[in-house]
Amino acid sequence: MQKNKSFMKKLLVCASVLGSVLSFAQEKDTVNSKSIEEVIINKMVKKLDTESSNKMPISFIENPQVYSSIDRGILENQNIFTVDDAYRNVTGLQKMWNPTGRAGDGGSFFVLRGFPSQASTRNGMVAPVTSTIDAINVETLEFLKGPVGTLYGSTVASYGGLINRVTKKPQQDFFGAVSASAGSYNTYRATADINAPITKDLFFRVNTAYTNEGNFTKSNAGNQYTTFAPSLTWNVSNKVQLNVDYELFRNRVTANPYFFYLSPKTLNGIDNMKDLEKVAGLDYKESYTGKDLYMTARNSNIFGNAKWKITDNITSNTYINNSDSYSDGYNPYFSVAYDVASSSYNVARADQSTNDSKKSWFQIQQNFNFNYDFSNGMKNKTVAGFDYMRTTERLRYKYLNSNFDTVAASGADYSGMNASALSALYANSANFSTWDYLRDLNTYSGYISNLFSPIANLHIMAGLRYENNDYLGGISGPNTEKAFNQSAFSPKAGIVYEIVKDKFSVFGNYQNSFKSNGYYTSDVAGNTTLSDPERGNQFEGGFKASLFKNRFNATVSYYNIKVKNQLLYTGEFTPNFASVQQQAASTLSKGFELEVNAYLVKGFSLVGGLAYNDTVDESTDLRPTTAGSFWNANFNLAYQFVDGKVKGLGFGFGGNYASDNNVTGDFILPKYFVLNANAFYDAKKFRIGVKVDNFTNEHYWTGYSTANPQILANFLGTIAYKF
User: How far is 387 from 330, CA to CA, in rounded Å?
Assistant: First the structure.
């Protein structure tokens, strides 16, 4: 009851502030209706590629690849401050796992076209963030659909696609904004974005944010998120530009609940999370932990770019990038089971901590772009480049040799599992074990991609990558991993025909990715065999439309992705308990996507889509537990006044639907439909925004092989001053 009173108080205060602002709003505004309308179109509708994702500029209509994008204007209108929340605007993308913060792979997991994916690149270079990603430094989020091995290689993207963050860049004019936010679960936030030209050719910009918040299972958690992102651009001459930027994310967070090993066999026949709540009494709002079980996560990215316009047709881009991830702290997790003797459901509590874990990526990339326009509409665009990347893992996990304890699923005192108790257990080496990953990998690549337009309406794309993975060997727990050197080619092809020039096109593509799995145990005697590269091949076709002066953009496509040479567990073991495998598995993923971005009525915009995916593990004829839901849909409707006394006032309403998700083969995370709403007032010198996410208080779970409860109804109000 107290939480509801606090929530309503915040809502009434922000509504009052917004009403006061509107009452004093003047009919005359410094921004005219036409420019406001153009801003709305740019934010909500236009679909233009950037060089960072395709490594060369290609317009939406002539690109044979399917992609989605989110402009920072959408984030501002929806009052979104994390990249995770921004993903709800992407057709066919479904969140599966909350970030854990642990180095290497601790970022959020998502499903694209039936395959797990993570946000792995920044400005086209490898830069995973292994914790919650603050959106303060985001200009655009880009989502390339399907295998993208030709341009990005085997170590970056999944077979389902690639998520790329494009960061804010310094500009030549002085401007800035500072903001303050407050909301549900003791959320408080402050941000600053300041752009300051130092000279006429040297520009500086800094983005920074600090957030302190609880969560719906522990409102007093005091989770802390700090982001600091300075950047510098120097126009050395009219042909040479240097860019340097840095990102630091430092988070201290207590984990949301993660439930593993869910099965009707151990749950007295219960096969879904809804019934586990209703029948077993599992408490959706309970953290099942005590105090101070924090994970400290740190990510830093250093990025340098030298751009040289050699001639009017040839450009050189040299990139140097270093990305580091670090983690240290607790990572509790749980399982639920039915106890026959007591006729009750219990939660077993355990922990897997990380101990000074580190993973880093160092990358050097050189690209040459060739852009030629010929007579009669003929033109050609080419990117040719090479890439070196070194991946270094120094990961250490600590885990208790047995469960911490077992408690009742509801009504018990859960405070006993806390930092003091776990620290005391970890002080005695007899209580825990460690598992280290010590690995080094050098990757050398060369690639070329070409888009040829023999006539104005026809575009033909072809590309090829050669990649060499030189694994120097390593350690995985007690096991020594053999060094290997393996190479592979990755081709791609595509064709676009513009049925109506610049407005309506039909397209098709072939895309490829691959993966080196190294050595595997191939028989019960313990012999090992170097696996062939695992390969994913996609064939896709569809239509694109860009109508009414870019006010309506749409893509509809059907895809078929076949992954071969995957490793398959045989169920046999060596005398040392190593699992025997065969390279005999394959996965087939097929489906369709419809995405629409529209601005057809003055002030009114729509972003939405529908996706269906059918993924099958062909060795078992079952859907993989990592494939997500069959159906996903998203929409956001927004209206903004572009003239009159309330010019700049806007409202938004949106939602996400997902069908049942089978996460363990026989256990289901039920379908959900989550609704969100927002309002804002944008003037020249200030901006006020309010939002309510999940306003129907939907209980919904995400996960693959796990179940993670998602945030309930939550409110956020923001006031920003612009200068």
Answer: 36
What strands, in cross-sheet order, belong to the sheet with 138-145? 67-71, 138-145, 161-167, 119-122, 125-126
Residue 692: its pLDDT value, please? Answer: 98
Can you say whether residue 42 is alpha, beta or left, with left for phi > 0 and alpha for psi between -120 and 50 degrees? alpha
In whole angstroms, what is the distance from residue 655 CA to residue 88 CA? 8
Mean pLDDT, the chain, integer: 92
Q: Residues of the chain with pLDDT > 90: what percent?
A: 85
Write the CA distances from 316 to 52, 145, 151, integer angstroms. Answer: 13, 27, 16
Quote the Cα angle for 177-181-185, to 5°. 160
Written as six digits, the tokens of 57 are 């500029």
Q: Which two tokens stand for residue 701?
A: 């779970």
127-132-136 Cα angle (round to 5): 80
Best CA proximity match to 609, nearest among 630, 635, 584, 585: 635
The Cα–Cα gap between 500 and 523 comes to 59
Provide the pLDDT confidence category of residue 399 given band limits of 50, 70 and 90: very high
Q: How far is residue 696's CA from residue 699's CA, in Å, rounded to a whole number?
A: 9
Distance of alpha carbon 182 from alpha carbon 17, whole angstroms = 13
Taking a C-beta distance cutoff of 8 angstroms, is the pair 389, 155 a contact?
Answer: yes
Residue 507, C-beta contacts closer than 8 angstroms, at least 6 positions apart: 63, 64, 494, 495, 496, 497, 541, 542, 543, 544, 557
pLDDT in tens, 460-487: 999 999 999 999 999 999 888 999 999 9
| Structural domain count, the chain | 1
Could you tell me the two tokens for 368?
């040459």
CATH code, domain with 499: 2.40.170.20
Q: Name the helix (H) or strand (E) containing 19.
A: helix 2-24
As a whole number of angstroms, the distance between CA 146 and CA 592 comes to 12
Closest C-alpha to 126, from 369, 389, 327 = 389
Strands 504-515 and 484-500: antiparallel
| Predicted pLDDT of residue 53 | 73
CA distances (Å), origin 244, targets 21, 234, 303, 387, 466: 40, 9, 6, 19, 29
The alpha carbon of residue 390 and the mean position of all alpha carbons in its chain are separated, in whole angstroms, by 23
pTM, rounded to two decimals: 0.91
For residues 467 and 448, is the Cβ–Cβ distance under 8 A? no
- Domain of 353, in residue numbers: 2-722
Number of neighbours of residue 477 by Cβ within 10 angstroms: 11
As given in the structure block, the two tokens for residue 689 are: 């925004």
- For the segment 215-270, what is each residue's pLDDT rounded down to a tens digit? 999 999 999 999 999 999 999 999 999 999 999 999 999 988 999 999 999 999 99
Q: Which residue has the tokens 């642990």?
A: 102
CA nearest neighbour of 676 among 659, 650, 694, 688: 694
pLDDT digits (tens, 9 = 90+) for 525-567: 989 999 999 999 999 999 999 999 889 999 999 999 999 999 9
Query: What DSSP character marks residue 430?
Result: G
What does the DSSP assignment read for 657-697? EE--EESSSS-EEPPEEEEEEEEEEE-SSEEEEEEEESTT-
Measured CA to CA in angstroms, residue 526 lies from 18, 193, 401, 523, 577 at distances of: 69, 57, 26, 6, 9
